Amino acid sequence: MADGKIFAGHAVRRLRRTTGLTQQAMAEALDISASYLNLIERNQRPLTAALMLRLGDRFDLDPRMLTADEPGGGADAMRRRLADPLFADLGIDRAELAEWLAAAPGGAEAFARAFDRLRDAGAGLAEEENGALAAVRRETERWRNHYPDLDAAAEALADELRLGAGDLYGAIVDRLRVKHQLAIRILPVDAMPDRLRRLDLHARQVQLSEMLDPASRTFQAAFQLAQLEARAEIEALVAGAAFGDRVAERLFRRTVTSYFAAALMMPYGRFLRACEATGYDLELLQRRFGAGFEMVAHRLTTLQRVGARGLPFFMIRIDRAGQASKRYAGASASPLVTAPGRCPLWNVHHAFDRPGEIVRQLVALEDGGRWFTLARTVRSQVRSPQGIRAEFAIGIGVAAEHAAAAVHARGVDLAGAAVPVGMGCRRCTRLDCPQRAEPPIGRALLLNDRERGLTPFMFAGD
């Protein structure tokens, strides 16, 4: 089980300033020395579990707030922004970045917002087109795709449903019928050709398409139950996001409702224990919880409960054109998820050549990070009236240093040779990549009629 140290100097400093305390006064309240508190505020010492409990007890602070609002998404996210070629000549190292985040968290957050806005504009994405999606993605990453209140509520409801029936789908159907006077009705595709789920309040029915497999049928029923029984927790999250945009609110509401439905199917405690007992075996987890591959992959990114953390996985879903329709970094802070582009050498693209098969790969990034990744294709169960059936590749991964606990990593030398990948050609500065499609941003092209390198785009190095 992976459990990283918590550095939250900016949050502790903000708390001290809002309460009007000096470092000496706050240190006395926490039973520590002023010099130790100073190190914590400068992110040179992590918060211990005992100290987090004292902060909660003596300052009425929710411990989740220590990690839920890091400026710019935290040090890893800020490093990814500063890796842009625009800042290549500045030489900002980790120590300098840590000092910046500790000393001026507001300024760091302002920089992050401005950089993200300009980056989106530079990518040719109009604000009215990507505003809602970008806002929801930022809110999801702010929570690191882990909502403790939803997990707790879903776990309690799952335990209650288990008392009545061993079959979760049957228990949900009974709950909807008895408590909410809603019946589940499976409709033929001819009657519902372009919908998977529909709520007919006049008929008091939740109508599901016959095309849904058992896992998806359970998920859709759980989604409906979440709308009815987790309304308070869901609306609290939506209100806390303060989007100021109805589309973003509705999209985020759907996102967290789906989270609750998945948590109901895969309750946190039981799911984490199964992960550790099976070595995060994706196929076994699918069967044990009656879930689909994509559902399990997504759930792996959420295992961040304080005191009961799982491996910090990320997840991404792409189509054959490389377009990402789902991206969850979770606690991994992996640039493979947040980067605007993807490398064709990463085998998440190759999964389309081996449909239904899990392919694995050890990759190395330009910043020295090493990641163990898995990829597999999934297909939509339904097709459009024109006969089109969607197909995606699901990529998940974990830092190589944590991957030894995963059964899929057996036989892989996690310290051995790794495939060098980048963040898309426009962000990658590797000089010797034969797969390069275009030069990186901010690097001058070098043209020589007497020579031909591995790539037609030779450019100035560091």
UniProtKB/TrEMBL annotation:
GO cellular component labels: cytosol
User: Its domain of life?
Assistant: Bacteria
What the entry lists under Pfam families is as follows: HTH_31, Peptidase_M78, ScfRs
Per the database record, which ranges form the HTH cro/C1-type domain? Answer: 12-66
Q: Which GO terms describe its molecular function?
A: DNA binding; DNA-binding transcription factor activity
**SUPFAM superfamilies (UniProt xref):** lambda repressor-like DNA-binding domains (SSF47413)
Instruction: Give UniProt keywords alphabetically.
Output: DNA-binding, Transcription, Transcription regulation
Question: Which Gene3D superfamilies does the record match to this protein?
Answer: lambda repressor-like DNA-binding domains (1.10.260.40)
Q: Does the keyword Protein biosynthesis apply?
A: no
InterPro entries xrefs: Cro/C1-type_HTH, HTH_RamB, IrrE_HExxH, Lambda_DNA-bd_dom_sf, ScfR_C, TransReg_Diox_bact_type
Q: Family assignment?
A: Belongs to the short-chain fatty acyl-CoA assimilation regulator (ScfR) family.
Name this protein carries in UniProt: XRE family transcriptional regulator
